[in-house]
Design a protein that fits this description.
10 strands; seven-stranded mixed sheet; alpha+beta; about 230 residues; single chain; 7 helices; three-stranded antiparallel sheet
Length: about 230
């Protein structure tokens, strides 16, 4: 089982009661704190996640008003994607650092994963809370994703691909891993981008997300990560 780190000294605002900071979108609920394992886990358990605002600003902590989730029974898998998937091999936690490096590639538009984030999630990976899914073509890593697993929650952080469909195959494998028949497992994608919505992601209100989160946290982790 994952190792519980020392508790955080920081107190996050309750997203259920939060109206947003002046001059910031109300998805942002806090600034500052640290990225120690206990702090980050406490945030996820409250429906909050860290993401830098800009290089010189304090760390931003977010709880989107409209949260993106991917229902495990709603993933859209086309016939061509199933055929494409046969070209790849999928593993978990075999190449975590390489997956994060792919997601943090400086050439990617909108890149937000900085060194501070990389170090923080590596510590959580070492404790058993953060996991990766890798997609291989032969011996080459061609795609993958990583995220935080707490109970029945998997909070996807980022994914990448260098081969067509490889990130979609990683998502297919993740859904297969999570889908054990429990209706309360929760795959959080933070914001439902057009790309994720094309794969089946939907938006729910912050309040609905928090209700689902409370149920998910009461579950055991997937067997592969228990």
């Amino acid at each position: 089982m994952p190792i519980e780190p020392p508790s955080t000294r920081w107190v996050f605002p309750d997203p259920d009661e939060f109206d947003g900071y002046e001059h910031y979108d109300s998805d942002l609920v806090a600034l500052g704190a640290d990225l120690e394992p206990g702090t980050v886990l406490s945030a996820y358990r409250q429906g909050i996640f860290p993401m830098p605002i800009r290089r010189t600003a304090p760390m931003g902590w977010w709880s989107p008003v409209e949260r993106g989730v991917l229902p495990l029974d709603r993933l859209r898998v086309t016939r061509s994607l199933r055929q494409s998937a046969k070209r790849f091999t999928v593993t978990t936690d075999r190449a975590y650092d390489e997956v994060v490096a792919g997601c943090a590639n400086r050439s990617r538009p909108g890149r937000w994963i900085n060194g501070e984030i990389v170090a923080a999630y590596r510590r959580l990976h070492d404790l058993g809370w953060v996991h990766s899914v890798e997609v291989w073509r032969g011996e080459d890593l061609v795609g993958g994703l990583y995220g935080v697993a707490v109970g029945g929650l998997f909070a996807g952080e980022s994914m990448f691909h260098v081969d067509r469909d490889a990130s979609k195959v990683a998502l297919m494998a993740l859904v297969d891993l999570l889908d054990d028949g429990s209706p309360d497992r929760l795959l959080d994608v933070q914001w439902a981008t057009p790309h994720l919505m094309s794969l089946g992601a939907v938006e729910v209100t912050r309040q609905e997300y928090l209700r689902r989160l409370r149920r998910a946290l009461g579950l055991r982790p997937p067997q592969d990560w228990a």
